[in-house]
Amino acid sequence: MSDKTGVITKIQRELFYVSVGNEVYPSKAKGNFRNKKITPVVGDKVDINVENGLGFILKIHPRSVLLHRPEVSNIDKCFVLSSIKSPNINLMLLDKYLLMIEKNNIDCVIVFNKTDLVSEEEKKYYADIYRNIGYKVIFNSNESSITNEELLNEFRNHINCVIGPSGAGKSSTLKKLFPSEDFISGKISDKTQRGKQTTRHIEIKMVDDNTYVLDTPGFSSFDLSFLDDKSEIKNNFVEFRKNSLRCKFNNCDHINEPKCEIKRLVEIGEISQSRYDNYLKIVDEYKKIRRY
Question: What is the pTM of this model?
């Protein structure tokens, strides 16, 4: 019998797999966690007591961050993968992902995948929207025989989460970057042009001593349950936050107020029209959720 400290790297069939160095211990949670309404999640640093190869989780260390979709803790870098074609890009979904990432103050990289299918003009159009805000944007094609070293370097020495819509190529990208790991890739249906969801459980993989990677299921929709207040929407659109001090009203919502700096910047093209339109739709969606 011994006490050890490790990281939950996988949850499956009510067992928590805790990695301690090169060893992995299937573990169970003590009943007092249920009584306290605390559920261990992937990414948690935990203390376990090991007996006959089976661990029992004694303590969950404080979390630096907790994401709810996927439910995972202590991530310090998030990659949002999106194809521009096959399937077509969904800017609303992308902006919702960024909203969640900003709320949790996580470093973010946007990866436009399958760029062998699109023109240079299309690549520039979408990249400019997000580079102008300040996000790092990387182009990737898994059809290339060359490993994308720029992308690979972004993963190193971080606890990484990879998110994005179904069919964007998340798992196939990870398999190419980390060929020794078993990342499951899905096929695109020719009929629906939507990816078949093949990532069936949440698992974080240690790809080297200081680098962890979490692949997640692809979603075609994304709700706003991670928000606690409507003001979090405007405060976590980066370009709104940077410029809102120049609005006439301190509590400007950037919708109907006069002398709104955000609306002025949209009119002159310094803030993307698609970002502003999606902001309005997200605010409207949030209001409808809170009515019920």
Answer: 0.86
